[in-house]
Amino acid sequence: MKSRSLHKFSLVLFVFLFIILYLPSVCSDYYADIDISVDDSGFVSIGGKTDHPDLLVENSELYTFKKQSYWLLNITKNEVFSDYVYTLTLPQGSTVNYIKSSGFLGIEEESGSLVITGSGGNESLSIVVQYQINRRLLDFNVLLVLGLLILVLFILLIFTVYHNKRKKLLGSGEKIVDKVDYSFRGLNDRQRQIMELLIKAKRPLTQVEIVKELDFPKAAVSRNVHSLEVKGLVEIENIGMSNLVRLKKS
Fold first, then answer.
1. Alpha helices in 129-243 (DSSP H)
2. What is the tens place of the pLDDT at every residue in 22-75?
3. Sign of CA dihedral 192, 198, 204, 208
4. Is residue 17 part of a domain?
């Protein structure tokens, strides 16, 4: 009798401990509102809100496996979730070969990445996705960026060459003012100075003014002005006792 009573007591104690220790962990429900992101190296980050003890991770390889060119993502929690919502973002250029998820799910593309959304409740959480990363698309994006960079460098090179050529022309006697080109080639020093004075003044000058500004002899100014007229660079207009000299626009 004593042994039978002891046996009953042990059985009752076992049932009591089972109810206290085991059943709460089995019957307890979790919730999750999470964002899942996977990079092209298979690292998984899960953020958001949940009371599950080990669901949230950062840069973890726990949930991914690669075989040849195929990636397998498997996030499975056998505990019951009273309510869950998730958003899964795969790497850019990914194509899905197989997907299985508890609850309801949807797939859409956003900024070149596949985004999978799902929700459910009163069940375990399971997300299984097999996917591939299209390297050609990634390489195309890289080539596009490099192409744009090369184009910008080419434009800068053309601008630099043009700018240097323009400076060289100016230094060798080409003068550009007010969008009119005046060639200084073949001019002597005094003729060039007269042209520069007319260009700088931006108005016709009398020969008297030219003599005063450049401190040239009157005869030298008259001779060189007429030479410029012959070369088609200036026009001479007689005004009273003086001549008015103006640039001739081509």
1. 135-171, 189-201, 207-214, 218-230
2. 544 445 689 999 999 999 899 999 999 999 999 999 999 999 999 988 999 999
3. negative
4. no
Same domain assignment for residues 164 and 205: no
The residue to which tokens 């910008």 are assigned: 152
User: What is the rounded distance in angstroms from the CA atom of residue 195 to the CA atom of residue 185?
Assistant: 12
Map residue 246 onto helix, strand or coil: strand
Asked if the structure places residue 92 within a domain, the reply is yes
Q: Are residues 40 and 124 in the same domain?
A: yes
pLDDT at 240 over 70: yes
User: What are the helix and strand counts (H, E) for the chain?
Assistant: 6, 14
Q: Write down the pTM of the prediction.
A: 0.47
66 & 139 share domain: no
Strand 30-38 versus strand 70-92 pairing type: parallel
User: Both 119 and 49 in a single domain?
Assistant: yes
Q: What is the dihedral of CA 178, 182, 187, 192, to 10 degrees?
A: 0
Quote the tokens at residue 237. 């207009």
What single letter denotes the amino acid at residue 65? F
Same domain, 46 and 115: yes
Query: pLDDT (tens digit, 9 = 90+) per residue, 192-235?
Result: 999 999 999 889 999 999 999 999 999 999 999 999 999 889 99
Give me the helix-helix angle, 189-201 and 207-214, nearest 10°: 110
73 and 63 Cβ atoms separated by less than 8 Å:
yes
Number of domains making up the chain: 3
**Which amino acid, one-letter code, is at 216?**
F
Give me the domain span that covers residue 81: 28-133
Q: Is residue 150 part of a domain?
A: yes
- Domain-embedded: residue 18: no
Task: For residue 164, give Cα distances in angstroms to 20, 180, 196.
Answer: 88, 19, 22
